[in-house]
Design a protein that fits this description.
There is one protein chain. This protein is mainly beta. Helices cover 6% and strands 47% of the residues. The strands form three sheets. It has a six-stranded antiparallel sheet with strand order 7-6-9-4-11-12, with no helix packed on it. A five-stranded antiparallel sheet has the order 2-3-10-5-8, with no helix packed on it. The radius of gyration is 16 Å and the shape is globular. The two termini are 21 Å apart.
């Protein structure tokens, strides 16, 4: 989706809608993240995680709020006070800025979720912190876990 700036809107330029397709290829290892749409203040993605894979290590985003919705599979989120109940199809979680969380695929099949992120500005690589206040430098530390191996011919649709 083209990002329409405030200047473009003020000039009366046509802003077109984007049709979103939630079809994604399933993974047998690692994770996939596909940007489906973006705007001036938000991103919308579909993610797929192999069993046991997720965002490990409690962290909070300082510049963005998130909503995750499970489309298929089972997600196990934890907050600063411990594990939350498992989430399955059509269940989700809202994470305000500064809310500490982590999650993983708690099932034995691929976990498919949509993720909506919003902030004062669109955030593609925002600031993250651990519960003890240490910054987290990007996603490179868990790159080995994140490289997906796709299941041939298998899709969430």
């Amino acid at each position: 989706m083209a990002d329409a700036t405030a200047a473009e809107r003020e000039q009366g330029k046509s802003i077109e809608p984007t049709v979103i397709n939630l079809r994604t290829q399933l993974v047998k290892t690692g994770r996939s993240r596909e940007l489906l749409a973006e705007g001036e203040h938000m991103t919308f993605r579909i993610h797929c995680y192999a069993p046991g894979i997720g965002e490990h290590g409690l962290h909070a985003h300082l510049d963005e709020e998130h909503i995750f919705i499970v489309l298929d599979g089972c997600a196990r989120f934890s907050g600063i006070n411990g594990p939350l109940p498992p989430m399955t199809k059509n269940q989700g979680i809202a994470l305000p800025k500064g809310c500490f969380y982590e999650f993983a695929n708690a099932g034995d099949t691929p976990l498919v979720m949509i993720r909506f992120g919003a902030g004062a500005e669109k955030v593609l690589h925002g600031r993250r912190l651990t519960p003890d206040g240490k910054p987290i430098a990007g996603r490179s530390a868990d790159k080995a876990l994140s490289e997906p191996t796709f299941i041939d011919g298998a899709f969430f649709e």
